[in-house]
Amino acid sequence: MARGIERIFNDISGNYELINHILTFGFDTIWRKKAARLASSFSGEKCLDVCTGTGEMAIMIARLSGKKTSVFASDFSESMLIIARDKPESKSVKFVNADSDNLPFPDNFFNCITASFAARNLNTSKNHLLKSLREFYRVLKPGGRFINLETSQPASKLLKYLFQLYIRNFIKPLGQIISSSKSAYSYLSRSITTFYSTEELSGIILEAGFGDAAAKRLLLGIAAIHIAVK
Ligand SMILES: C[S@@+](CC[C@H](N)C(=O)[O-])C[C@H]1O[C@@H](n2cnc3c(N)ncnc32)[C@H](O)[C@@H]1O
User: Fold this and answer.
1) Which of 76, 81, 123, 151 to mutate to test the pocket of ligand 1 (most atoms within 8 A of CB)?
2) Which CATH number fits domain 2-229: 3.40.50.150, 3.30.160.70, 1.10.3720.10, 3.40.50.2300?
3) How confident is the model at residue 35, as a pLDDT?
């Protein structure tokens, strides 16, 4: 499954950012900025953005944290990383090709770890997500923060219904047309509609060993930022 996901992101890397901005009406950037601002207040000496894709979050954190912080960014899709490394603003970020389940860093290394729109892809099963979260926990320093931005499920039943309708009838077909990848946007839209609620994800983060997993809901719960502490 993980190799299949790597193939999907290699296939859509060319217009991944554009499609995201169109389908979320630019909210993905607003939410990333919110999470990056939070991360920069905890970034300390070393910060890692896992599943960085085209590096948008890592670049924001590097800009906000300044020279005091070394920003690392990892992903297993080389096509996404090529786009990330190519950006003039990414000079200060150290990009690494790595699977999030097996990070090439020592224990207790980072002050802060971020993940944006990544947890859904690590959730090929609940056990897989737990494994990845435990790996983030391993490389975080004690007291370090894990900041996770991800789509969520609105608490209101009506809003959840409308949100899922929008994903199925707008995101899925439009993504398929713009990216010309049928399978990628079938997979991505399914991963949004079946992902955990904010409370369920807090529970899984705690189960992985974190001491706290507070959540900030965004846009009536369509997305959420979880802030967890080692
Ligand atoms: C939806 S994209 C999100 C990219 C970026 N974080 C953002 O905010 O747009 C998910 C990314 O996670 C990467 N990914 C998925 N599973 C991974 C894994 N097990 N190890 C490393 N990268 C992974 C994919 O290659 C892809 O670049």
Assistant:
1) 76
2) 3.40.50.150
3) 98
Closest ligand 1 atom to Cα of 57: 8
Kindly provide the b/e burial profile for residues 114-125, where b requires at least 16 CB atoms within 10 angstroms of the residue's own CB: bbbbbbbbbbee
Neighbouring C-alpha atoms within 13 Å toward the C-beta of 150? 31
- Going from N- to C-terminal start, the domains of the chain cover 2-229
Q: Is-contact 74 98, C-beta < 8 A?
A: yes
Could you tell me the pLDDT band of residue 23, with boundaries at 50, 70 and 90?
confident
In this structure, what token pair is assigned to residue 123? Answer: 């959730």
Tell me how far CA of residue 95 lies from CA of 42, 59, 85, in angstroms: 20, 11, 7
Cβ-proximal residues to 180 (8 Å cutoff; 6+ apart), any chain: none
Across residues 56-70, what is the average pLDDT? 96
Residue 1 has pLDDT above 70, yes or no: no
43 pocket-lining for ligand 1 (C-beta < 6 Å): no
